[in-house]
Design goal:
mainly alpha; Growth Hormone, Chain: A; globular
Length: 394
């Protein structure tokens, strides 16, 4: 059995996991209903949905490099995490007040700006406080707790929509509550470990050259992969195209996050024991098959099944990828390394969402998802090369 004692997982990781849980309840209440709100209430078209989601997600990813580097320079990460979670909580009411797509763009930009500030320092905190032999388990545990919130949020959203005659704005107002509680828990629940400050520019080329060669191949693979990994908003719109009702669509996130949450921790533990690259490659293969499935799906039962496997892809890849990064960079540059890999994915997210929206509108949803699957296949090939050239155990 894949078991690991709780004592090997530091308290900081547990607290960060519960902060993520609460924040994801809030964010998934919004995200699981926002595309429908944009189209049905505000009258947006699919290109506008893609533009809003692409700008929002790209903003978050691009900011991560700077917040990560800043946390390395200061040697302090908790304050940046608080600022990021706090900003996302503050802008959540803007969704409820939105009267046009421009308002939604401002709110999503602010929310993702907060995410961009917090994610790299938070991931570095996990790595800073966890022994190398338990790192996969620690990242997997945080991801699992995160996904409990990620499937609880859509459940709450669906229940509110059902009881309130599809009152999207009420969903957004209620989402502010768990976000605020999460910020409070972060403030009082974590004592930051003492780490060495670089006191030099972490983005200087001489610093970046200290990263493992396989790390850079993983960065390029992540870039390729995310050129085909558009916003999840398009998965929800595909569900609507296949005949699912507005009230049941948020429940798709429940299914995907159940498989995500139940697989992330075991995958992390397994990566500590047998290596990480094989699991990451397997996760990407599942993604390629899932997107190919979305291209041809026409019935609701197919959508439910694909969302379940989409969650499995996430569980097998997200925490494992972070552990690979932590394994291959100096401790004092972890924030920068986490931020850098998110920078390149951020560069890909905007064109990915715009490309998907354009292909869907001009050609078909089948072509949009087929292209996404193709990019994943290219990334898998590069990961195989990275694994073969790694000079450390994977």
């Amino acid at each position: 059995m894949l078991k690991i004692s709780q004592s090997r997982i530091p308290r900081t990781v547990w607290v960060l996991g519960f902060v993520s849980l609460l924040t994801d309840i809030s964010s998934k209440m919004v995200q699981s209903t926002l595309p429908l709100f944009l189209v049905a209430v505000l009258g947006s078209n699919l290109v506008t949905v893609g533009l809003i989601e692409g700008i929002a997600e790209a903003t978050a990813s691009i900011l991560k490099i700077f917040s990560g580097a800043l946390s390395d320079y200061w040697g302090r990460r908790k304050q940046l995490a608080i600022a990021g979670y706090g900003l996302s909580a503050l802008v959540t009411p803007l969704f409820a007040l939105a009267s046009s797509p421009a308002w939604v763009l401002v709110a999503r930009f602010g929310d993702r700006f907060g995410k961009g500030i917090r994610v790299a320092p938070r991931n570095a905190l996990v790595a800073d406080t966890t022994p190398a032999q338990s790192r996969g388990a620690a990242f997997g545990l945080r991801q699992s707790l995160d996904t409990i919130g990620a499937f609880t949020g859509p459940l709450i959203a669906a229940a509110v929509l059902l009881q309130s005659e599809q009152n999207f704005r009420l969903v957004f107002w209620l989402a502010t509550i768990p976000a605020a509680i999460g910020v409070l828990l972060l403030v009082i629940g974590i004592r930051e470990p003492s780490i060495s400050s670089t006191r030099r520019n972490p983005l200087d080329w001489s610093a970046l050259r200290s990263f493992d060669r396989s790390y850079w191949l993983v960065v390029v693979a992540a870039l390729l992969f995310n050129l085909g990994n558009s916003s999840d908003a398009f998965l929800l719109l595909k569900a609507q195209e296949a005949g699912l009702s507005t009230v049941t669509i948020p429940l798709l996130f429940v299914v995907s996050n159940l498989t995500y949450g139940s697989s992330a921790y075991p995958a992390g533990v397994l990566s500590d024991r047998i290596g990480r690259f094989g699991l990451l490659i397997s996760g990407f293969i599942i993604f390629a098959l899932v997107y190919l499935g979305f291209a041809f799906a026409t019935a609701p039962w197919q959508i439910w099944t694909l969302f379940a496997f989409y969650g499995l892809y996430l569980g097998m890849s997200q925490g494992v990828l972070l552990a690979i990064v932590a394994d291959r960079v100096p401790a004092e540059l972890r924030g920068t390394a986490f931020g850098l890999i998110n920078l390149v994915t951020g560069i890909a997210l905007l064109p990915a969402s715009l490309l998907t929206g354009w292909l869907w509108q001009q050609v078909s949803s089948r072509s949009a998802f087929g292209v996404g699957s193709g990019f994943a296949v290219l990334a898998i090939g590069l990961l195989i090369i990275a694994q073969s050239r790694s000079n450390r155990p994977d």
